[in-house]
Write a structure and sequence with these properties.
458 residues; alpha/beta; eight-stranded parallel sheet; 14 helices; binds zinc ion
Length: 458
């Protein structure tokens, strides 16, 4: 008796889409092919549907532990499951920040009881991090490392500080290019990637100003800050062999810098997010504070350049930077409002719609599943539908549109930057290792997410 059969759908395989049945045993795909007469415990009729690999969102902020009023692993992963994201990789700026193996182990234990999808954990590089810290974090199962160029660290609260008081005696200097260059050979030996928040701190410091209007916000975070930081980290990647990954690319000039480095052979990958692909400055009036985020959503020309960069393959990954805040933290002045927006639940539907508009809907699973799996060291177990892979499967209806509405969001914070947009796809059923975890946008069953470790390069 086979556990699960998903029958009659159009399945996205590594060789492209085809009509096929998917057989699952013990959470793993055992056959992708024509119908057979084997008995099955559970049969899902996917006639007329797409069957896609579960998405891996490599950029989420669970806020757990540290900020339960914003989000926790339970609400994060309920939203993820509802949207077809079956693995999340969580950023390390929770509190305490994930800067040591013991913190990573405690966070993984905490998430294990709440997570409805599988999860990995990025670890933090501080300006004071040592090769031995990184080695221990890698041994504890870190997906890789994240560094926030220019963001200071409070050593008592163990917290990455976005707006530190300059007279705070507990502040440690932010990591800089020197930090990355100093640790590069150690990271290269570990074979793990480094994710960079790439905005050059010196440029940001030069343009700092009160944010009264959206134009002020754009002037305070100019695209040249991104382009300079991308070039600098690409240089370190090229000379050290460390795989560098640029998070949330937001500008045409940042993209141009990344493209040049990739052409020159640097081991660099680029990620952008749905907000930069769908929105531009003109939307601020209607979208409001959900659009406050760093780096900012820029001009229409930046949006078009990023869409072109995704279309030509320069940008390989779409992730969300899911970063919820409470309505109170958002419902203040532009200057005072917290930065970030929830988004994990709409990753798949928005990506399918973009891919469709580019003329090939089947690109979307490569952006949200296949390429992210490679970045996260999960390329041998997740990210594609093939024999031997985890049965993380998403059944999508390509004839039923989704309109993004706050009432249907499962994150603790419901007002996101894509609210009101219409995508021509609806996520119907979502399976994690062969077990149904969401149906029609609602969580199903118990929290069964597991901690996933990267396969080490060596
Ligand atoms: Zn982020």
């Amino acid at each position: 008796m086979t556990d699960l059969l998903i029958r009659g759908g159009t399945v996205f395989t590594p060789d492209g889409p085809r009509e096929a049945d998917i057989h699952v045993d013990d959470g793993v795909i055992t056959a992708v092919g024509p119908a057979s007469s084997t008995a099955h415990e559970r049969v899902v009729d996917a006639t007329g549907m797409y069957v896609l690999p579960g998405a891996i969102d490599v950029h989420v902020h669970s806020r757990d532990p540290g900020f339960p009023q914003k989000e926790d692993f339970g609400t994060l992963t309920a939203a993820a499951a509802a949207g077809g994201v079956t693995t999340v990789i969580d950023m390390p700026n929770t509190v305490p920040a994930v800067d040591a193996a013991g913190v990573l182990e405690a966070k993984s234990a905490l998430a294990r009881g709440k997570a409805r999808v599988d999860f990995g954990l990025w670890a933090l590089i501080r300006s004071t991090s040592t090769p031995s810290d990184l080695e221990q974090l890698a041994a504890a199962g870190a997906t890789g490392f994240k560094t926030y160029l220019g963001y200071a660290f409070n050593t008592t609260r163990k917290q990455v500080m976005y707006a530190p008081d300059s007279d705070d005696p507990d502040l440690e200097a932010p990591p800089d290019y020197g930090t990355l260059a100093r640790l590069a050979s150690s990271v290269a030996e570990l074979g793990l990637p480094v994710v960079v928040h790439a905005e050059d701190p010196a440029i940001l410091a030069a343009f700092r100003r009160p944010l009264e209007t959206y134009e002020d916000l754009l002037a305070a975070r100019p695209a040249e800050a991104e382009a300079i930081a991308v070039s600098a980290v690409a240089e370190i990647a090229g000379s050290s062999g460390v795989r560098m990954h640029v998070a949330h690319l937001s500008s045409a000039s940042g993209l141009a810098a990344g493209r040049e480095a990739i052409r020159a052979g640097a081991p660099l990958t680029l990620e952008t997010c749905p907000q930069y692909l769908w929105r531009c400055d003109a939307d601020f009036e209607s979208v409001g504070m959900a659009m406050k985020m760093f780096p900012p959503v820029r001009r229409a020309a930046d949006r078009e350049a990023l869409n072109a960069g995704l279309s030509d393959g320069t940008i390989s990954i779409v992730a969300t930077d899911h970063a919820p805040h409470t309505d109170d933290e958002k419902g203040v002045s532009l200057d005072a409002a917290a930065s970030g927006s929830p988004g994990v639940q709409t990753l798949y539907a928005s990506s399918l719609e973009l891919a469709k508009r580019m003329g090939d809907v089947w690109r979307a699973p490569r952006w949200v599943a296949e390429a992210p799996a490679r970045l996260a060291g999960l390329g041998e177990t997740k990210g594609v539908i093939a024999v031997g892979y985890d049965a993380d499967l998403v059944v999508v209806d390509p004839t039923s549109p989704t309109i993004v509405r706050a009432t249907q969001m499962r994150s603790r914070q419901r007002h996101g930057v894509l609210e009101g947009l219409r995508f021509g796809f609806t996520v119907r059923e979502v399976f994690l290792r062969g077990v149904l975890v969401a149906r029609e946008g609602r969580k199903v069953g118990r929290a069964s997410g597991r901690f996933v470790r990267p396969a080490r390069a060596h």
